[in-house]
Amino acid sequence: MPAKTMYEKVWDQHLVREAADGLAVLYIDAHLIHEVTSPQAFEGLRSAGRKLRRPDLTYATMDHNVPTTDRSLPMTDDIARLQIEMLVRNCEEFGVPLYDLDSPHNGIVHVIGPELGITQPGKTMVCGDSHTSTHGAFGALAFGIGTSEVEHVMATQCLLQKRSRTFEIRIDGALSEGVTAKDIILNIIRRTGTAGGTGTVIEYTGSTVRSLSMDERMTICNMSIELGARAGLIAPDDTTFEYLAGRAFAPKDAEFDRAVDRWRGLATDDEAGFDERLTLHADELVPQVTWGTNPGMVTDVTGVVPDPGGMASENDRRAAEKALAYMALEPNTSITDIEVDRVFIGSCTNSRLSDLRAAADVIKGRRVSPRVTALVVPGSHSVKRQAEAEGLDRVFTEAGFEWREAGCSMCLGMNPDILQPGERCASTSNRNFEGRQGRNGRTHLVSPAMAAAAAVAGHFVDVRNW
Amino acid sequence: MAEPFTRHTGLVAPLDRINVDTDQIIPKQFLKRIERTGFGQFLFYDWRFTGDGSPDPGFVLNEDRYRGATILVAGDNFGCGSSREHAPWALQDYGFRVIIAPSFADIFYNNCFKNGLLPVVLPAGTVRRMLENAAEQPRYTVSVDLERQVVTEPDGASDRFEVDPFRKTFILKGLDEIGWTLQYEDDIAAYERTQRTG
Asked: Which of A224, A264, A340, B84 could form a disulfide with A232, with the two C-beta atoms 3.0–4.6 Å apart?
């Protein structure tokens, strides 16, 4: 048998058929849906008189536009409420299990999939959301799709696909104290740009990756889409299997052991080749901060805002000038001199228990700066319950953070959690596009520890010196 | 089911930016609709309109001379960011039939074909020339022939573009992809019998 990468193995195992021109009908093992990108797909099924083929492989939650304030109060946004009610009706009509707002398992779709053990090595997973790449942390081939493809998967449990190119990103060495998985992925996007992974499926390899927890691996795979990749993968290992053991949808007992044997076989063969490669040395990394309006506009916390005048490419120079004008930043300003008005800790990138612990560690016994309004939004009800059991909620509230209900919240600001025009935010989310967190809001992407430290200091600080 | 696309001749609007993301194409506050239609009014909302909701005269699509444009030419990595199909829905509802750029983000590129909106990749130099021509020449109009995979400019200059054969076939005929896949129902069922999924 020819040597294969993990991507090629998972791909081959899911081929229903592959035509001579490479067009494949690829079987999908798990389809995650949410309120924003599914209503038109359900309507498409209904108007064509089609069934949803595998409701048992379809899992629904509501996360994008849900309020993170008191859930016993009625939603004030009528259009958002209609979208949520629509999901409830659609799930009832088509027999799809729904983790609605009252469910103890509700939360951000990319947080609850792994928590429930729906996410497993070797599975193909899709969702009408680009951050579906998160699930690749388990060795699942997981990618975002548009609403037409959501409908396609609903009707057929398959997608029409062509093979992607493969991209190995190898990360070796030990991370310094205060440097995190978020800094790894921001540094990668800084090197590749936001299109450097277009057309590829990434596999993250190397000693650093092996030493990371599942939460950290998810942070890295989550942002694979920010360099344009279809998906990001990490080979499953004991860390993965320990995480999955005992989860609601994970195999049980002897079946789990058999699954582990199967999962071990997914790793990329030694002789297999990748189309592209990039190598990083984790020990050289320092905390990263974005300065511009896309996740590739990144620098070290010890650095300065770049001078567009010094950029070689005309495209880059003009993009940087536009970005700095939008961000209201002057070239050569020290990153640590940038003051923030808001801090957001949350999103499918950084809202898991270990993220909240890291942030709580930084703020324990301190107070949020008077100039800052700070928000913590746990990724799921389950994360929230566990954090509260550990007393993290009190650490946050005593420091002056608002402690909220689970949801996507200010990552994309579809609910009332948005920046006001001109406000500057240190955010643990994944996109700093113009207007992403609110019209004319200014977003700087950082790790949870860096965001927490900025909340206390009122400006960016190097959390390594905290 | 996608609207068929065969050939199109139309006025070109230049959007001379790289990395135009889907949050710019259709901002999140407009994703709450449960229909596929009506998104054109919100296209590039934060660029088209000022804070008080009036048209921003500095934005290219607000210039009179680009009224009725059906072909948008833009910089590298157009459509990066989220998977929201609301982005092609908004572009199409606004009146665009073709987007020309040196490169596109994957999910956006794929979403366009599902909606009869043709994304065309041309070399960076050609796109640069088209951006300049559209800015300088009044009523700069080009023709896009999908069957022949050629874009023709007013001076007769033509450029061939590549498109995946299966995508081309589907969009040329406006085929129903779901219907196409369902003809392999027996294969899907056979695959399911061999698997222990879930």
From this structure: A224
